[in-house]
UniProtKB/TrEMBL annotation:
It is found in: Cytoplasm. It comes from the Bacteria. The gene is gmhB. Keywords: Carbohydrate metabolism, Cytoplasm, Hydrolase, Metal-binding. Belongs to the gmhB family. The lineage of its organism: Bacteria, Pseudomonadati, Bacteroidota, Cytophagia, Cytophagales. Its EC number is 3.1.3.-. This is D,D-heptose 1,7-bisphosphate phosphatase. It is an enzyme of class 3 (hydrolase).
């Protein structure tokens, strides 16, 4: 039996800028993320990023831009991430069942890593992240300050606080 933490990217692992983040110099890893990832890994979770990158379909940037940002992310967290899936589609160009709130990225990882969905968690800062998780029976934790309390069943301020919830250490 294997378990994983699915991680949205912008607003969870790196600072949400309110615009597409595709240049390495704009990609800023959030405080506390490397430590939280290390803790989760210590507890036996695969760490799997699932990120919508609709800017690729829109022609705003390329897959190579995304990969360069992911290299910076891996470097910052000691290469703790086991896999990074991206959904390059955007509904304004072409639809895709990979793009969240659909769940193909999660389904691929569940198959590849032989994951038990009810042992897995998704941490994201948008409801579409929670919806993608629900579709495959994965529990979600909604993070970020933009959602009022009560928006979702489980909420946390950031990945560090979500990690405490996952590891059963309460809110603090
Ligand atoms: Mg996000």
């Amino acid at each position: 039996m294997a378990k994983a933490i699915f991680l949205d990217r912008d607003g969870v692992l790196n600072v949400e800028r309110g615009a597409y983040t595709f240049l390495v110099e704009d990609f800023e890893v959030c405080t506390g993320v490397p430590h939280a990832l290390a803790l989760l890994k210590e507890h036996g979770y695969y760490l799997i990023v699932v990120t919508n990158q609709g800017g690729i379909a829109k022609g705003l940037y390329t897959k190579e831009h995304v990969l360069a940002c992911h290299e910076k992310l891996q470097h910052a967290c000691g290469h703790a991430l086991d896999a990074l899936y991206m959904a390059p589609a955007h509904e304004s160009v072409s639809s895709s069942i990979a793009r969240k709130p659909d769940s193909l990225m999660l389904e691929k990882a569940i198959a590849k890593y032989n994951l038990t969905p009810d042992q897995c968690w998704m941490v994201g800062d948008q409801l579409r992240d929670m919806q993608a998780a629900q579709k495959v029976g994965v529990k979600g934790i909604l993070v970020g300050g933009q959602h009022p309390a009560g928006t979702y069943a489980m909420q946390a301020k950031n990945l560090a606080e979500a990690t405490n919830l996952i590891l059963g250490k309460g809110q603090k």
